[in-house]
Amino acid sequence: MKDLKNTGSLAGAIEFHLAHSVGKTPDAASITDWRLALSRAVRDKLVTPWFDATHRTYAKDRKRVYYLSMEFLLGRILEDAVNNLGLEEEAKEALAAYGVNFAEVVNDEPDAALGNGGLGRLAACFLDSLSCLGIPAYGYGIRYAHGLFHQSFEDGRQVEMAEDWLRHQHNWEFERSECTYDIGFGGQVTETGSRAQWTPSDVVMAQAYDTPVPGWQASWTNTLRLWSAKPKKIFDLDPFNRGDYMQAAAPEVLAETISRVLYPDDSTEIGKELRLKQEFFFTSASLQDLMRRFLAHNGDLRALPSKVAIQMNDTHPAIAGPELIRQLTDIHGLSFEDAFDIAQGTLNYTNHTLLPEALEAWDVGLMTKVLPRHMQLIERIDDRLSRDVKKSETGVAPRIVDNGSVNMGTLAFTCARRVNGVSALHTDLMKQTVFSDLHAVYPDRILNQTNGVTPRRWVHGCNPGLRTLLNETIGTGWVNDLEQLEQLTPLADDAAFRIRFMAVKQENKQRLVDWVAETMGVQISPDAMFDIQIKRIHEYKRQLMNALETAALANAIRRAPDEDWTPRVKFFGGKAAPAYLDAKNIIWLINDIAKSVNEDPVIGDRLKVIYPPNYNVSMAEILIPAADLSEQISTAGKEASGTGNMKFALNGAVTIGTLDGANVEIRDHVGEDNIYIFGMTADQVQAARDGYVTQAHIDRSPVLKEVIEQIQTGFYSPGEPNRHRPVLEKLLRDDYFMVAADFDAYWDAQRQVDQGFADRDAWARMAVLNTARSGWFSSDRTIKGYARDVWGVESLLGDTT
Ligand code: GLS
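Above: inputs. Below: predicted complex with beta-D-glucopyranose spirohydantoin.
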């Protein structure tokens, strides 16, 4: 194949693009112009490996993976691509020749925030690993015009504003105006002979936008294909000719609404018609697209499972079951039974949460209205499930259609070859609780694939100091073979190495100190312990418990300021879903506590509370490398896995956490002496539900009691004692997440952390061991597990035949 590699210098390519793509001369160029030019120049370098990967996959006719996800929380793309291509030094030099600062340029890029939290970020890490491992794959999702909302605080309260990442040219994607599919909604189903024919009442078009996803050193490059909704016909000519321009544009507006905005809820179900339409929109487009690709090379539809593995990332694309069956029966003429078997051999489902409020269930009336043909097929899939239940003789019959709603978890499970959880504990709980009936019917279906994170972004990219130290100490192989970090284990006992390791941490803390001063105008000391809890605000994650502990610590300091306190800065970061009032109230309380603590001269530098607004991926990249302590304190049994916990440990932070999600496996890897575990286990939480009385726990804990009384009497909201009543009322009435029950254990663990941190040498040893033993949490390991156990696919790296 012709070599399209842009072999010229990067500097030349930047200049070229500044002139020819951006239309600027260097003297007139803004930082954004330089960013756009650099992005184009870097993208050019991706094209050849991208074409190569595609051609090799076609030539080999290998099985491909299709990862269907409503969310891809990519963050910034440019710096990551520069790093993966090894162009950092060249880019820095090229820009410096014009007096332009590389860091300023890459930081100018808005985050691609096409996701809410862990689920979407996991999908982004998986894309990276799939490319690094040379596994032929597509990510399929939605090109939302507006990603996750922008958060600010007004008097401590969260205020949301629309996000606008596409305002400037988005230089990473290739628009595929020729690649479109019709997506129908509503209408009628008629039968002709044995075939059903669905005639939708509304049709919109899904148009593809492709982003190349380079692996490490661009040895392989996959595609992220995002769908944007476009009108089938742009203008309704009748009203237009009558002069009713607004009415004429109505179809356009309606169609584009579908991919307009990301629903801002994490781990909660929304149940809105538009959401169902979004789900079907991207799922149907993706399936049509992959079927077209498959049929271009294969005549026999029965071969689909041997060429295609589809992953449903949570239940959001669960309509893939009925939709694939619809395409196989109504379009390609297969029988329902054959179509079901093919679909089921092709589809897999990952469950990401057991929270009941997150389990999607659609009203049968709504499903029938929006997707009438699919509703018929869902009934047939349900019959098939009943048959399997009878065969299995378990007695308990789970139903897909139950009580007037379609249970998407049951649907996804029934249509999948493999169903996986995201940590060992979560997978066990899937078997024991939500999916116990289905597990009894299909005992071989559930398996575990513990989550992971990409070391390219989460060490190499975000922690340049650690990257250099690792390269100098164990070589560069760790970047795509993270378990090589294990070689650091003996160095935990090497005083000189510990000093170097902690010097990197100190630099990262200083970087954060500077960032806080610049963005928030607050001075903090880099010598304090940096204690960080960053994640979506959710009651089960118990930011409230952390806030209450902060207030309690402030009380203790105020009472005895001259004691030997371990200075701390507590960082909070995270957004609450706009309609999740209880979570928003927690944000308000945290900000009020922060204000009171930070302004108290008696407390001084012993304790500070920092809550920077608008937490996102880019902010995580500054915070995580600077952390001493990682807060992973969810109610046991509620956090399916967590992935932030892994990023912190990898970057040498010590965890304080419950035995929840992947914390359990982090403890197993880093060793119980190098983590602070506290609180009830998942079993104990269950057992404690009967007869739980919040007040009894509060009465037993003078420390907690004092804080509650302070909040009640307006200590943190002077002049407005009722401001935080809703938080307290909820806690007292229904402490479902057992903040009160775990509070004392948490408080005690924190005091042990104080002591631990005071012994800097012992702490450094723990920190080194956390990095050394976290290599297993690479998403490369996770993806290898999926490739082997779920998809049955192989890497094409190195296979040059
Ligand atoms: C989530 C879980 O809450 C996280 O524990 C998990 O790490 C993540 C990725 O598997 O998925 N589920 C969800 O709906 N949002 C999440 O972040």
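The chain has two domains: 61-76+111-451+784-791, 468-777.
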